[in-house]
Amino acid sequence: MKHKLLFSLCSLLLATSAQAEVNISGFASVVAGRVIDGTGVAEFDLGPTFLADYPLVGAYDEDISFKPDTLFGIQFSADLLEGLSATAQVVSRGADDFSADFEWAYLSYEINEHWTVQGGKKRLPLYYYSDFFDVGYAYPWIRPPADNYTWQIFNYTGVSALYNYLIGEWTMSGQVYYGSEDSDPNKLLSDFFFLENTREVWKDIGGIVVQLNRDWLDIRLTHMQYTNERYIGGVQQEWNGNKQRTGKFYGLSVNIDYNNFLFLSELNRLDLDGSNLDTYLVTLGYRIKSVMPYVSYSDFNDGEGGEVHHTTSAGIRWDFHPSAAFKIQYDDVKDDGGPGMKVAGDSQSISLGVDLVF
């Protein structure tokens, strides 16, 4: 079915190419890695494991593997003239056995120079790098720190309005959005946490993003809320006797790219019916011509006795080509979760690969 959808999209774009300009671009990451040492989680019968990609359960063990972080993506964009355009993105991931899925499929209409409305399937814009999560070339690490980029839902289907204004010497941009997502089965919850078919439903997703940029300083604020339902093995889960719970997400990013110095930070909080889950990351890098060494620290804290883990990373990015970068990264994970709340245990791992855009 997926191959038929991809063929149909390509046929449609080719058929309309006489009336509209169709642009095709792509990106890829070829990454290998392994766990050097780790404790695993004995109570879950899990050996030494590094969970590199939470949403798609991209996990390394003690054997060298190319699957967890390797992916290939193609984006089609058709300019239908008079402000109307169509965009579709197909991504094939090793963590998902290289099946090809539509990550984005939406229409855009440019109302004026400041506002654009969109409708369809898009990436949920929770984090600074959410829109570029699959494009490894766009950031310094092998992958965005998993302690921070850890959601089980990462897409939504709905509508959004993007805006862009110049205020003095500042550029203000962002979006407001509304939609929903029904993930059945949800890969993270089904394959890793509950080990049985789990359906994750997010209703009434609504959010706003405000981003301010001036020269070397970039500040991003975001807020999102949603209503959550969950079905495990076909049975609806309850939280304190309720079949639904409300989540409210708050995020702040402050990034500095000044001369050769790079500073990246994100601070987030999820309020789930009064219970707080906090994550943050800090990254420091320094460019030496085409090479940038960096260090990073990220943290996930679900409260005392809950899910608690943090990662210290060090790596090097080498831009050996105008459209490609080689990276090598070491990750040291400490899993301090309470009884029954450990994720994958402590681990030390190494990964290296090439990111490219075309």
Automatic annotation (TrEMBL):
Domain of life: Bacteria
Keyword field: Signal
Signal peptide start and end residues: 1-20
Annotated protein name in UniProt: Porin
Originating species: Shewanella decolorationis S12
Source lineage: Bacteria, Pseudomonadati, Pseudomonadota, Gammaproteobacteria, Alteromonadales
